[in-house]
Amino acid sequence: MTTPWSDIALTRYPEDPRDRLRAWDAADSYLLKHLAEQGTDLSGAVVVVGDRWGALATALTGTGGCTPTLISDSYLGQQATYANLERNSRAGATLLTTRDTPPARVDVLLVRVPKSLALLEDQLHRLRPAVHPGTVVIGTGMVKEIHTSTLNLFERIIGPTRTSLAEKKARLIFTTPEPALTPDPNPWPLRYQLPDDIGPLASGTVVNHAGVFCAEHLDIGTRFLLRHLPNDTGARRIVDLGCGNGVVGTAAALTHPQADVLFTDESHQAVASAEATYEANAAGRAGTARFRVGDGLAGVADDSVDLVLNNPPFHSHQATTDATAWRMFTQARAALRPGGELWVVGNRHLGYHLKLRRLFGNSELVAGDPKFVILKAVKREPSGRRGAQRR
Asked: Contact, 191 vs 206, CB < 8 A?
């Protein structure tokens, strides 16, 4: 990536030489160009929110004495940022998550507009007390990511807002802090009650922190999976892979009261939501529950899990890709013990049954409707082990 100050080398995380998606886009370049052309003072307290793969962090760290604080909800994005900073010998940046306490003062606030308006709303509310009349506030995003509702959030929470002209399908947002402004309270996290026709979690409580998929209602794919979850299968170690708000893992915990359940997601907001949802519905059961932010099942011991439940995403920011699903399925196969099961819900057109057959050698249709399918794949024992048992 060419920046106004130097060229930098960037990759996404996890690194994949076959991945043709770049670790930056025109919105990142437009913001950096503007900062350089305006001679923005970067020596004070600079906060960067939502830097996707560390492009902004890597370009700014060390520039004009800049030691930015970076706030991200994404574990994968943070790992990319660490790697890109090291790759380019940049030191001095501080990385925080969206669950950490934000800095007490902000002189320059740079916001990469997220896909989720709710996450933007939450982060602007959390950062507003640190903003002062002299704070430079600039948002950036692709034109298709910036809507009237986006601008309204900046204006309603921070102050008067305007936009730049579009450049290479990217746009900047300029907001002037208004000290006299009194925004409404931060509405997040949000709680709602589930319907009474979805199985073991019927009429249960869901807790959603901002930015979690379908934060205001239960998405139809998860609803379909909840209605067809297996009852007590004898599984003693269960994983809710890509747990989101944790409703699937919590339902499995209720039907497997003795089992240990691991909730894992790459989103800090999601894992916080899953923990709150579990506590609201399943606290006090005999089995344990663990909550982990990370790269799926990376680090989980091979042949150690009985049941994996998964509703994989098929978008990475604005890009449609099956890379995340493929990685999740591969991790699940490694973590499952022989005889262990992976249950997947997905849109029918995604063809997950082909991937599962390739990885597991089998794929069974559990349930389907015109839009979704639920598939089960079983990890088979190696042929040598089966033969040894027969002998």
From this structure: yes
Report the pLDDT averaged over residues 202-222: 92
- Give the integer Cα–Cα distance in Å for 307 and 246: 15
Residues 97 and 72: beta-carbon distance below 8 Å: yes
Segment 193-222 shows an average pLDDT of 92
Strand ranges inside the chain, DSSP E: 46-49, 69-72, 94-97, 106-112, 131-142, 161-163, 170-175, 190-193, 205-208, 237-241, 260-265, 289-293, 305-310, 315-316, 319-320, 336-347, 364-368, 372-378
Report how far residue 156's alpha carbon sits from residue 299's, in angstroms, rounded to the nearest whole number. Answer: 43
CA angle 12, 114, 347 (to 5 degrees): 75
Peptide bond into 189 cis (omega under 30): yes
The whole-model pTM stands at: 0.94
Task: Indicate the DSSP class of residue 197.
Answer: S
Tens of pLDDT, residues 49-86 = 999 999 999 999 999 999 999 999 999 999 999 999 99
Q: How far apart are CA 58 and CA 34, in angstroms?
A: 16
Q: Are 298 and 265 in contact (CB under 8 A)?
A: no
pLDDT of residue 321: 60
DSSP assigned state of 227: T
**Vertex 109: Cα angle to 41 and 183 (nearest 5):** 135
